[in-house]
Amino acid sequence: MDSLADLGTMPAVEPMEPTPYRVTHSRRETVDVTTLTLVPVAAGLASVLPGQYLMVWAFGVGEIPISVSRTLPTGEVLLTVRAVGATSTAVVGTTVGDVLGLRGPFGTAWPLAAAAGRDLVVVAGGLGLAPLRMAIDAQVAQDPTRLSVVVGAREQPQLLYADDLQRWTAAGARVHLTVDAAGRSWHGAVGTTTAVLERLAERHEMAFVCGPELMMTSGARAVVGCGVQPSDIWVSLERNMHCGIGHCGRCQLGSQLLCRDGAVVRWDHVERLLEVRGR
Amino acid sequence: MTGSHAPVAVRLDPRVGLDALVRLLAADGYRVLGPVVRNGVVEYDDVMSGDDLPTGVTVEQAPGRWRLHHDDSGLRFAWTPGAESWKRYVFPARQEVLRIRRTDGSFAVTRPAPPERPFAFLAVRDCELRALAVLDRVELDPSHPDPRYAQRRAGTFIVAVTCGTPAATCWCTSMGGGPQPGTGYDVRITEAADHHGHRLVAEAGSERGAQVLIRLAATAVDEHDLAAVRSVAEAATQSMGVRLDGAALPTLLADADDSPHWQVVAERCLSCGNCTMVCPTCFCSTFSDHTALTSDGSAVVETVREQSWASCFQLDHSALGGRAVRATTADRYRQWLTHKLATWQEQFGTTGCVGCGRCTVWCPAGIDIVQEAAALVAERARLNSAGDFRT
Ligand SMILES: Cc1cc2nc3c(=O)[nH]c(=O)nc-3n(C[C@H](O)[C@H](O)[C@H](O)COP(=O)(O)OP(=O)(O)OC[C@H]3O[C@@H](n4cnc5c(N)ncnc54)[C@H](O)[C@@H]3O)c2cc1C
Ligand code: SF4
Questions:
Q1: Tens digit of pLDDT for each residue in B27-43?
Q2: Where is B99: in which H helix or E strand?
Q3: ipTM for the complex?
């Protein structure tokens, strides 16, 4: 019976198995957002493309999808996490030396090759800057003068990555910051990223947008107003995800399994679906 | 399963021959699973002998209704399947995925042992066979095959059976199938009871199927047996008709998202999820970690990761940021129906529905997926002919 022999030659990889990573650095970004630097305890995961995410597992608590906000040449991954529920709070609460389990990388990437040589606008709302940071870094290294970055946050203390924002500006990128509510020390723009895009009325050829879903919808429409074709706009969508590999069925948006076909998707592929309430 | 095999076909006695087949497969090292009557339904479970399989059992099926009847016909395969499908064995409702133990400064992972024996599935209907193929496409997707599914599925010996008496709720003929399995089996049994007698015609569909039949040392079939196989299949097919153009559903339902009909169904749907639990292809699942408390309050040392069936009718299935994306019953019924009949095609290259009718039969509200799909298709056609084209 040849079939019994088959049992021994089945796929050896268990996609649900986390790989241990140790926290080497923890940096408080805002009151509830922390960036962790993690290094593999033994062998690490495959290399990460800008926009991809990992499943992050805290022992005895649970596992959640988190975007990679940076990788270092020495193998570290950086994750920027907001404490909202049990698992994210446990992840944010780890200290140097603690071990987390990582799986991935999963999902699609920002199409940087297609952005080469074109005017790119990157629009980020709140924590949406985290999955965009690697893409901005790459574009700044390539062609900073053809890059605009519009970053919105609720209030000034919620603005992430102050040193990166400065570095991108110094390199020649146009970085525009805006807040919903201005404190005394804020002298910049007030209002939504959409309002900034409309006011600047810059011309662009391509756009990457990430933030709360409503912000992405209005942001994508605003960049259409800046001359970008809907097929050249990319957004990163968030849905419930348990597996990262299209096996748990939770992240569906019409015919897309966003864990696998996203999270980065072309705007014209999802615009209509996002208009349908409860889809 | 190899394609080049001698056309082996034998005639089996409905009692003695079936029993010999069960025992031979068990002796060959398979875990033999087949239909048994238990708790008033047909379930699939371990069988030790041919007598464990139903005799003189028929089933009445209607929306929200499944009833077992006994008669003295002596027929072995006149029943139709119950709520349970073979999915239960290749993709259990609850399974251990991993065990993770804290070690000094890190953690170590162990995986569950693979099954000791391959399965032999006995009396696999055409819809069930296609459901396994649909599930294979999801779970054995080349980029991320599920190793636990692969291990359970490896080497499965399939004894298929032709449906002589399809139920009123069966609609496989609309979904690319029919009462007679055409491919993907090792042995196919067709039960014939005519003036040439009551017998099981067993035909090989693979080399190892042929070997099994040869070793049964049964009588070779004659032309009456083969004619009976054809007429059983033809009569069953004709009794069913075609209720919907299944292949066209992804297109026909593509612009149905805004239909008012979802709300019409939602008035009756209980959002109970029965339809998804009995579906032989539904794969949605929950991955969760289970950690026992330590008695002395010391740090937990081991956690078990489990996978269990989930349903798109559960509110937390689409939970996001403290609320549910698919918040209403209409949202969830739309997700269920369009996934099964339309969007699955683009996701996995097959339909998500094989037309077994279980979701209709086991729905406590008696909601018939075929009727609802037909209503949506008719509504789309009306809107399109009225000139309300969407782009
Ligand atoms: C592809 C992808 C990438 C992601 N990347 C990141 C990332 O880089 N960084 C990051 O921090 N998160 C990211 N997320 C989101 C992150 O996965 C969730 O925040 C996380 O799953 C929450 O899990 P939890 O166990 O902490 O909370 P849960 O217990 O699952 O749920 C959160 C609970 O907190 C409350 N809650 C959560 N969010 C909100 C809200 N917005 N408003 C009100 N109440 C709320 C609710 O009570 C809810 O029940 C990403 C998600 C996806 C799908
Ligand atoms: S269709 Fe029927 S079985 Fe499915 S969730 Fe609604 S009431 Fe339950």
A1: 999 999 999 999 999 99
A2: strand B94-103
A3: 0.91
